Each structure stands twice: as structure tokens, then as C-alpha cells.
């Protein structure tokens, strides 16, 4: 693997890691049966899960480096854990009667360092990658009867990717490159939940957006089980595709894989 491929894979690995370990509104369970916030009537849910995601696509997150094709499996993503500096992952999902809201924040910072051979000379490649995604949305429950619930959402998604790479000693010129890319997408989404029994249910959730991206798609299909009034467990499959091109910057990546987790009600 050359320097370009290594750098792009490292950046992509950090993004996969951020979403893989996230709490996200894509899987926010219904707040039915949860305890309302005192004096407000709002009901709140928080979800944590593991997404065993791989990723494939084309990235150019550090121009002037050329585009690189990436193909990462779940094992490649797990290896990025040793390079994790900090992270903040939080999701709030609320409901009051038929009114809904959600706010999702994912922030991850990694700084891997590797020693490479450059034309017979050992060099140290110091990389830093910081990613942020923020999704606030409001929604409305359009159907709630006969064991079936249908919700619709509207909002926006803010993205920021800050990446840098430095070669030491400075045997190449320039020996450091950095890029800070931000954009915002308008977002709409829907969720259909169908009860299969008194405790089990089928969930189908999808969000789409465009604006700063050519498009992004985030979809999930899975089965859930009610353990108690305050806890649900679920397992399913998720696919997310983001396509952003702005000048020399390119991020066209698909992530997909199974996921499972727990929904806690407060």
C-alpha cells in the first residue's frame, strides 16, 4: 500500500468508526411507554448500538493527492480504535402525542502515526482526522393504529471533515497537506414500524438528503424485541451512501453491514 492509499484508508476508517459505534436517530426506538419529562408531556428515548460496517468507494479527502479507491471490511475499522483520541456520540429522540423530534451528534478524532519506506528511506507519516455530523429534525406521526406506526421527518444534516498528513523528516515537498471541508444537506425521512406480536416488531427506516452532497441515503431494516417497559433489543441491516464532490474534494462512499443494539427509555 502506498502513502496515498494508506492516507485515504485511514481517513475513511475514522469515518466508519464514528458511525459504527454511534447512537443514531436511524435506530431510535419508539418512546411508547417511556416516562414523560416532568411538566412537558414529552417522552424520550436513547439508543446505543454496534454497526459492523465495511466501506467501499472513491475518496479524495486530501487534495492535491489523487483519488484513491478504498475497500475496507469491519476488521479494518476495528483496527482504527488504537488511534482514537476522543469522541462524542449522543442522540435524543422525543415524542409528544404525534409531534416528534430528534438530534444526533457524532464527533470523532483520530491521529494515527506509521513508519513507511519511501525510496529506501524510512519516514514517519503523521495523520490527523476529525469528523463531525449533526442531524436535527422534527417529525409527525401520520399513522398510529392496528399495530402499525408511520412517522415522517424533515431537517438538515451538517457535515465537517478535517484531515491532515505530514511526512517527517521532510524528504518531500510539500511535506504537509491539510483540508477542512464542510457542507449541509436538507433531509427528509420516514419510518414504518409494524408489530409482529405483543413483544416483537419490524422496523423500516430511511433518510435521504441533498444540497452540499449530490445525495446521501441512510436506510435500515430490522427486527426488535421489547424486553421491558424501559428496554428494547434489536438486530438488522443498515446501508448508508454519501456522495460529495466539491472542486478537488471527493467523498463517494457506501457503508453497509449488520447491526444490533439496545434502546433505553428514560
Report on this structure.
The protein has a ten-stranded antiparallel β-barrel with strand order 1-4-5-7-8-9-10-11-12-13. Mean pLDDT is 79; it is low at 1-25 and 31-37. The longest helix is centred in the N-terminal third of the chain and has 18 residues, at 3-20. It has a single domain (3-265), classed as Lipocalin. The chain is mainly beta and 266 residues long. It has helices at residues 3-20, 74-79, and strands spanning 43-51, 54-60, 68-72, 84-96, 99-110, 113-118, 121-145, 148-168, 176-195, 200-211, 215-228, 231-246, 249-265. The protein is elongated, with a radius of gyration of 20 Å.
Just name the CATH architecture: Beta Barrel
Structural class, by secondary structure, is mainly beta
How do the strands of the widest beta sheet line up side by side? 1-4-5-7-8-9-10-11-12-13
Mean pLDDT: 79
Task: Profile the largest sheet.
Answer: 10 strands, antiparallel, barrel
Task: Indicate the topology.
Layout: H1 3-20, E1 43-51, E2 54-60, E3 68-72, H2 74-79, E4 84-96, E5 99-110, E6 113-118, E7 121-145, E8 148-168, E9 176-195, E10 200-211, E11 215-228, E12 231-246, E13 249-265
Antiparallel strand pairs: 1-4, 1-13, 2-3, 2-13, 4-5, 5-7, 6-7, 7-8, 8-9, 9-10, 10-11, 11-12, 12-13
Amino acid at each position: 500500500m502506498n502513502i496515498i492509499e494508506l492516507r485515504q484508508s485511514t481517513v475513511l476508517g475514522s469515518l466508519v468508526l464514528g458511525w459504527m459505534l454511534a447512537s443514531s436517530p436511524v435506530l431510535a426506538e419508539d418512546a411508547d411507554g417511556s416516562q414523560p419529562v416532568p411538566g412537558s408531556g414529552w417522552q424520550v428515548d436513547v439508543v446505543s448500538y454496534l454497526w459492523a460496517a465495511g466501506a467501499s468507494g472513491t475518496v479524495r479527502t486530501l487534495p492535491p493527492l489523487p483519488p484513491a479507491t478504498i475497500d475496507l471490511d469491519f476488521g479494518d475499522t476495528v483496527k482504527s480504535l488504537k488511534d482514537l483520541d476522543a469522541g462524542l456520540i449522543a442522540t435524543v429522540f422525543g415524542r409528544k402525542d404525534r409531534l416528534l423530534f430528534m438530534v444526533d451528534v457524532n464527533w470523532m478524532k483520530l491521529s494515527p502515526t506509521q513508519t513507511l519506506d519511501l525510496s529506501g528511506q524510512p519516514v514517519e507519516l503523521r495523520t490527523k482526522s476529525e469528523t463531525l455530523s449533526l442531524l436535527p429534525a422534527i417529525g409527525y406521526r401520520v399513522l398510529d393504529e392496528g399495530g402499525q406506526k408511520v412517522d415522517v421527518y424533515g431537517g438538515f444534516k451538517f457535515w465537517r471533515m478535517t484531515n491532515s498528513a505530514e511526512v517527517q523528516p521532510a524528504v518531500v515537498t510539500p511535506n504537509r497537506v491539510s483540508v477542512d471541508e464542510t457542507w449541509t444537506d436538507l433531509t427528509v425521512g420516514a419510518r414504518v414500524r409494524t408489530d409482529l406480536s405483543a413483544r416483537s416488531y419490524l422496523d423500516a427506516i430511511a433518510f435521504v438528503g441533498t444540497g452540499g452532497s449530490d445525495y446521501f441515503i441512510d436506510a435500515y431494516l430490522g427486527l426488535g424485541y421489547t424486553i421491558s417497559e424501559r428496554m428494547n433489543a434489536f438486530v438488522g441491516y443498515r446501508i448508508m451512501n454519501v456522495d460529495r464532490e466539491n472542486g478537488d474534494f471527493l467523498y463517494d462512499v457506501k457503508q453497509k453491514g449488520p447491526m444490533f443494539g439496545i434502546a433505553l427509555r428514560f
